[in-house]
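User: I want to check something. If I give you two sequences, will you return the structure for each one separately, not as a complex?

Assistant: Yes, each is folded on its own. Here is the first sequence with its structure:
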Amino acid sequence: MARPTSLRKTSAIATATVFAFLLSGCAPATSPRAVPSPAASTQTAKSSANADAKFTNLEAAHDARLGVYAVDTGTGEEVVWRSDERFAFASTSKALSAAALLDSVGIAGLSADVDVAAEDIVSSSPQTQQHVGASMTLGELAAASVQHSDNTAANLVVEHLGGPAGFDSALSRIGDDTTEATRTEPSLNEWVPGDRRDTTTPRALTMDLRTYVLGDVLSGEERELLTTWLIDHSLGDTLVRAGTPQGWTVGDKSGAAAYGTRNDIAVIWPPSGSPIVIAVMSSRTEADAEYDDALVAAAASAAVALLDKRS
């Protein structure tokens, strides 16, 4: 399949058109290049003294704990920094629950209607609050969850998977025994240090995203639609996207939680060569600390440079 060639499209009309094409059996022009599953690649760590210095300096400069895992899917080279430490996953999980929904129902199943009741609505639900008393399709809910980080849409998607336990089981089926999903939005963002609920690691997030977007768990059409949702993500311009060179294509999903938690997971397509998959996670020591987009962007930039993708 061809690599995505268009940058993020913010038009709701464009998104609706792509979704309609997929439901009619047609594929959009933008589609990911399939690569071997993570288990099929030999990965060489780029945790050199230079890498350690970069991330140590970023943590000091931004007064935060930082976790990074990035892999060049062509060479298998990886960048690691606190890659196996736990962080709250926050709304990055919406990309994975939407992917798990695709795996569960397929393209055709996305046309099923779901009633949206007033009691379903939680905070930060810009799309679903417009449909109270009516219905949205599963596809519309998944798109709203990924593209606009709509919390109610995410909860309804997870409910269709069997609740947090069902979502957790879906991740286990693709080999993720690290992530622990236990709550729904917005309470899953009420993380405190040491709490394992609704946490994961940068490595696990990267592997999950790689498996769903570039692996063979989903069909070609399902991967294409998931990729479109990620590229159309409307809240990521100051995160991994800001840390990649102009003209590269990025599909991402951001998240934020207590203790200054700020995350972004992404697939990055350079103009030539294989995609990079990356997770950048961060937190701070105070419960009400502000999160720091600049830290995520700088960490992504450093990881891309370490993978020699700017040359």
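And separately, the second sequence with its own structure:
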Amino acid sequence: MPFGAHETMEVHEILNEKIHLINLFGRMAHETENHQLRQMIERHLQTAVEAYDQMVAYTHDYGAANRMPQVYGMPRMSPEQVQYGLHNPAPMLPQPQQAFRDQQIASALLLAHKNSAKNHMAASLECADPNLRQMMVNGAITCSNQAYEVFLLMNENGLYQVPTMNDHTAKTFLHAYQPTNSQPMMHI
């Protein structure tokens, strides 16, 4: 079964991205000093390797779709576990000549996952092959979950602060949207 032109190019882009993520994650795991961050990076690295190998296997043998890995799951979280508000955020500026610190490694990991989630979802929209499409969707969900895991670690350690707005302002803004009250929609 041949692949379409769009999906062939999208798979090429995702596989190329995976190679660079695998290389980057390996370097990050080696350079970080934080044990918890290192363990997280190593888990994410293993997931990236499995996803890469699975997609490569499928492009070589359509029967490999039967061996799809599961989506990377997240433990249940409640909104109360997230720390909201700004608490003396540190100034941010480029520092291209310095060695990476754990905060920079965590930020790079977070951005890599966010971008990979977007890239996987965009690629899924171009796939005609249902198995390939599902691999892309699973990749987007996995990267999204891994990004959230990195966010939670950063947030817990004060490295990712969540700006807030006045509670009254937020509620006024969002409460402008009202339920449909299950009114049937009129067809024009």
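Because they were folded independently, the notes below concern the second chain alone. Residues 5-31 form the longest helix (27 residues). The chain has a mean pLDDT of 89.
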